[in-house]
Every structure is written in C-alpha cells, then in structure tokens.
Amino acid sequence: MMECVHYRVSGREAASFQPGLPFPAGTGAPPELFLVQREPVWSFAAWRVTNGRQLTADKTGVSWLDPRRMGPPAELPPEVRTALEAGRLTGVNLRHPGWERALDFAASGRGKKRVHLLAVGDVGSTLLTALKLLGGEEISTVGICDLNEKTVARWVTEMGQIAWPWDYGALPEVEAVEPENLFRCDVFLFAATKAIPPVGSGVKDVRMAQLEANRPLVESFARQARKAGFRGLFIVLSDPVDQLCQAAWWASNVDEETEYLDLQGLLPEQIQGFGLGVMNARAAYFAKGDPRFASFLTEGRTFGPHGRGLIAANSVEHYDDALSQELTRLTLEANLRMRELGFKPYAAPAVSSGAMQLLLSLRGAWHCGSVPLNGLWFGCRTRFTPQGLELETLELPDALFARLRETEGILRELSD
Questions:
Q1: For a designed S-S bond to 390, which of 48, 54, 173, 317 qualifies (C-beta 3.0 to 4.6 A apart)?
Q2: Nearest to 278 by CA among 159, 397, 130, 172
Q3: What is residue 194's predicted lDDT score, i.e. its pLDDT?
Q4: Helices (H), 107-177
C-alpha cells in the first residue's frame, strides 16, 4: 500500500503520495482533494476521481475510459478509498498553474446561467430557438452576437415574441450582446463559421474542409476569453469540433507577446466540443429502423469525433465489431444523405449536439461531449460534478478498445 501524506488546502482535507508539499498538515480524515503532479499539457487541472489508477497515471488518454488498461490497481489507504467510493474525491494537478481556478470552476454550482451565442446563422438560430423553448429551468438569458446587426435585431425580436400565454417569464430572455461583452457570461457558445462547402460541391469531408477557415476564428475568440479572464464554459459547435477545441485551448494559453505556452488561459476542462450528440442520435435513428442494431438503444455508446474516427458501438456488453462498423458507417454518412436531398444538415446538429447537450451539462447530467484526453479532444459520455469533470468508465471489450486506440491515432494525426 502506498503511503499518503495529509494536508490542508484552501480549508479542505487533502492527501497525496508526495511528502513535503507546501501546505499545512491535515487531520488524516477522508480527503476531499488528492494532490498529484503531472505534465499539465496532458492532464486536467482538476477532475472527479472514479478509479484509483487515475491518481498514479502519468497522463490522461483513452485508457481513462477503461481504467483496467492503465496498469495495476493502486493500493489506496482506507481513508482515500472511502472518499473515492463515496464519489467525493477531486484530483488536483498542482503542476497546472490554474489548479485553484479549476477548483472554483468545479464548484461553480447550479442555478440559472447566462449564455452567450456567437453567431446566429443556420445552426445558431436553430440552437437559439431550442434553448428558448427548452431552457427555462437552466438559463436566465441568452445573449446573441453576429457580424450582421440586422440578423441580431431579427432574432431578438422573433424570440421576444415567443411566450406561453399568461406565463410571460417562463422562458429565457434573448438580448443583443456587443462583441466586447461576449465573455460576461457563464457559458459561451461558438457557432460561428467562415466557410461551408455548398450543397453539390462534391466535397466529401465537409468538416475538415472547414478547419483552416474556422481555426483562426476560434483562436481569436479564445484569446479574447483569456484577456477577459473568462471562468465559464467555452463550448465549440462549429466544425470540425474536436480540432477547434484543441486550437482554442492552445491559443488561449499562449502569451501573444512571448509566444510562450504559459497555461494562463482556459483550463482544459473549461472547453468542450458538442458534436457527438447528433452522431449518437443518428445512430439511435438507424437502430430504431433496423432490428439488427436494436441493442444500441439500451447498451450502445458513441465515442470519438464528429467525423472520421467516430465509433458507434452496437453494445458494450455484447459488442459486435462488424455490426458496429456498419452502424458507424451509416451514422457518418447521414449528413451526406441529407446533402444529396439538396439540404444542409444543420437542424439535428443544432438541437441534438447543441441545445440538448448544453442543457444536460447545466443540469450536471450525463451528456455527449468532446473532452481533453492526452492533449486531444475526444468524444465520450461525461458530466460536470461538484468534484470536477467526470468521464464514464466502462469495461470495454478488446476489439472496441482497439478501435478507440485507432481513433486516438487518427485525431493525433489530424492535430499534427
């Protein structure tokens, strides 16, 4: 059994395998915090610990989704094991200069949130409509910003004229937000896009065609978030979601004058990509229409990016690789089928990936999100808790885990 040292950190009981840390001595009670030191580029600043191996691993990665793959189990002292099993343990990476901010972010709590949305094109306006109708319990106000002032005026007016009769305060208010005030909010939604290949263009991977156009946009707003000292959620909806999350994190954490990665910007757990939700919904759509895929509706999962590398697993408990490969293909090509009809496929992504996942996030419920794993953003089932970001952990069949590893390689290749 590894020996733990107890400390007091910000008035909370903490434990660590490392002696001599610069904190007062603790009491030896079950800790709220567990202190580690690992390379901050490859790890969360703070997270909810669900497996003892997460306390001894050098970095994050897809093995966090199946901790058995991380090596032998950690032998924890009884008081640490008690805290972990009760779901009350937060891992803290002391090498991340923002670890204290990360604890504040994890404990930001519930209550109605102020949401700001950039911009209100096809995706943004559909998302806005869904948030207006569905977000009354979670959202106080939605502020919208767009280069076209008339577009903003239109949607403020349209949304202002949507109300339940005789219950006029039940739905979130919608108002215009000036660009300089974009980060005076709890949640920032990036739905801006510079270029979408037109229907009939023949472009097969539309998402990756948007990368070079949209990367400078998200980097610009990430730097703005840094300057504003933004402490809320930074959500990426524009394609390609996963690569833009990584770009946003990097841009916000580099000092513009020195070009030094100083990690003074957005925390890795502050940034999530919302693209997997619609892929999960599309897989369910096909599962409803074909009994061969029916197990997905009760046992299935989706992993990975909103695009190449996606995994739609027919079942975790009874995984069938061939069947899952076919379901994945159908899911990936669903947007192409819509474009063949002559339409841009934006309604389902705006609602299933955008509105629904945001509302689940604000409730602290499980949702589909792209989260930082080993320097990449990787889609999985996740949730925000008072102890920090939590990733669902499962015992994954070898064939399924091999596909996760393959996807991790694809994302690494795309990020180079």
A1: 48
A2: 130
A3: 78
A4: 122-134, 149-160
Q: What is the mean pLDDT of residues 355-359?
A: 98
If one counts every other C-beta atom within 10 angstroms of the C-beta of residue 336, the result is 12
CA distance 160 to 144: 13
Q: What is the pLDDT of residue 203?
A: 52
Distance CA 320, CA 324 (A): 6
Q: HEC states along 307-350? A: CCCCEEECCCCCCCHHHHHHHHHHHHHHHHHHHHCCCCCCHHHH
How many CB atoms neighbour CB 410 within 10 A? 17
Amino acid at 249: W
Whether residue 207 is predicted with pLDDT greater than 80 in this model: the reply is no
CA dihedral 54, 58, 59, 62 (to 10 degrees): -60
Q: What are the angstrom distances between the C-alpha of 233 and each of 16, 117, 120, 228?
A: 29, 12, 19, 13
DSSP of 232-290 = SEEEE-SSSHHHHHHHHHHHHTB-TTT--B---S--GGGEEE--HHHHHHHHHHHHHH-
Q: Are strands 376-385 and 367-373 parallel, antiparallel or unpaired?
A: antiparallel
List of residues 6+ apart from 341 with CB closer than 8 A: none
User: Looking at residues 109-129, what average pLDDT do you find?
Assistant: 95
CA distances from 251 to 191, 218, 333, 369 (A): 18, 9, 32, 20
**Nearest Cα residue to 18 out of 43, 36, 31, 40:** 36
Spatial neighbors of 59 by CB under 8 A, at least 6 apart, are: 38, 39, 42, 43, 374
Q: Per-residue pLDDT tens for 265-291? A: 999 999 999 999 999 999 999 999 999
